[in-house]
Amino acid sequence: MSRVPLPYSQKILELFRNPKNLGKMEDATVSAVAGNPQCGDMITFYLKINDQDIIEKATFESYGCAANIATSSIVTEKIKGMKLEDAWKITWKSVAEEVGGLPAVKFHCGVLAVGALRRAIRAYYQKKQQTPVWLPKELTFEEKQALEEEELAKILARRMRTAEEGT
What we know:
alpha+beta, 6 helices
């Protein structure tokens, strides 16, 4: 069985080979995870946020494909120096455009990157016990996707443990 390579843009391939802001941030103000157990893509975002709610530094760790790494890299580049309110407005579609487009089967990578960012922003305000007026009370599509995939991963992990204990 042969596999046809996905039609990745040059920008995706470049960011895959040379990702920006890759690595764990030890002094992060907040971090958040998003993942898709079906394809194996996992992202952890780390944000360093100052007292004016400006993102001073953003890094990520990734276990995933070229599109996962490229979209995470682009998001961390875009948000440096942004106020959290402005970073919140980044969409997965704008991320996909920024990397030169994503194959249809890889749209979820942009969704995961934005989902991880929004989860980190929401976690930051929960930690501060604040809710800015611009922060939606309901979870966004991207956050729901990240949460659903996280819940699915937990269910699968429990089933695997149960199966292992039964053998």
